[in-house]
Specification:
The complex is a heterodimer of chains A (273) and B (329). With 273 residues, chain A is mostly helical. Chain A contains eleven helices and two strands; from the N terminus they run ααββααααααααα. The chains are: A mainly alpha (273), B alpha/beta (329).
Amino acid sequence: MNERLDVITALRQVLAFAKRDFRDWRTYKTQVITQLITIAIGILSWAINATYRNRPVPEYDTDYISFLVVGLVIGNLVMPISQALERRLNPWTLENIIMTGIPIPIFVAGQIAWPYAFSLITFIPQIMIGILWFGVTLRVDPLSTFLAFVVSATILLGLSMISIGFRLVTKSTDPVTWTINTLQQLLAGISFPVQFLDSFIPGASAFSWFLPQTWVYHLWRLSMLKAAPITDPAIQLEFLKGSVFAVVLFPIGYRAFRWGLNRAKRDGTLGWF
Amino acid sequence: MAWEQVGGLREVFARKKNFVQALNKVDLKVYRGEVFGLLGPNGAGKTTLIKILCTLVLPDEGEAYVYGYDVVREPSKVLRNLQAVLGDPRGFDWRLSARQNLEFYAALYGLPRDFAKSRIEGVLEFIGLRDRANDMYQRFSTGMARKLQLCRALLLDTPILLFDEPTAGLDPASAIDFRRLLKDGLAKSEGRTVFIATHNMWEAQSICDRVAIINKGEIIACDNPENLRRYVKPEKGYVFTLDEDFGHSEELRSFLSEVSRLEDVKGSRLEPGPPPKVMVRVDKDFEISDLLELVVKHGLRVKDLESYEPSLEEVFITLIRGERYEREA
């Protein structure tokens, strides 16, 4: 392959992954139908649940259902970036794909392309139902939201590549990602503001801010619930703190991925799982 | 003819790990347009060596290169000159058709769309899969899957093709077809360099211009099959099929006794039959006229006479058991 990355070729390579995955997905007709039904039922379920428990969320000047909807936004617009890469890693095909000589960034982007597109497609009706049916109120600052996307996507991509780097070597789960993901359930503020933790264990929320995922949720909620302008110095500081995780984790992730790949190549286990 | 070297390994080591068979100071040269065979028992290091050339396994020491490009430092350049058909038919999406799978790989290879389209049709035609190109991959037999792997490897039109156990799992007829494709289609007609790793001696003997024998991670011999047979087992043999009356005759016993005293005869034995057969192993330079004189002298009636040379399999076994081979072509 030419030393200089041809952008059009690179895009075509990423699209080739998406096209392959889409073609594969649509052959599972039952799965397509059940996936769509699952999504619809899922929307109703959390919306009814949230309505039942609805209460104010003063940390973001909003109500609980709107708070949860932003979680849904993150789940559809950001999480697929990391989840798709981890789930679609298939060592049985890895050797053949590597033998095509495609660069690692293209491989990563290609693995994500279709799951992300699918997630985006299913997200639109979900957010529409949230707004039109359940009266979700979003106060969005577009620039902050865009930056939140960039920062959170970088954080999650970094974490995901660390995970894959380990998995290429261990062939199963990796302890780093497992720890982070497990702690996330409790500490990252997925379904409640992290400050609420302090009412159970005083000072517990302080630990939350050391978790990268906490910043993913926090920055999105600031941008979509409080219309936090990036021109505000206080908001800039929040974004800066989140960006530290992104700046640290992304290069570590890339190095971990390369390390895992080279280690698997040296061990001769690239095609093994 | 001056052979242009297209690839090789220089003092390559790969330490023994869970899945990598250690290679120990492997030196090997492969030349343009030849069919090169790497022979070895299971676990000898054949697949490790092939995967090093494919950039899928990193050597611990030494150099491996393809057209001068280092497999560790310049893998993308190596892969523009070399593609491989590895053991199991993997890497295809089983819910897509053969053509769709090839379209995917053509895009990854960076082939322009129109060119990719014609290239895909071309390789499908060349390999003989065009009629089944729209079938889902899951419906493919082992032989067809192997052919589709070859189609994928041919998409990039590289001058070197590597095969790991090319006919493993194929029925005899498909295996013959596939060998013909390697030897006549790829090497002879298209001038590509074909490198195969196999433990099928007959396969190596029938299609390889040169073979290297690898055992426990070391190359213990490298030459053309003819030379290997000549120098490792420098002998040949004759089989006399006799008239049935001679099975236990005095003339036959006397004949065998005199044969064993001839210079350059390495051994003889009788198979009582029927029909009785006398096998005589002789030095490779032995003149058969001496034997024929004894046949006439003892009045044996010979119904048939065959000569044979040691097979590559015999050579292989001799070498694997520890005999040294000093000569190299």
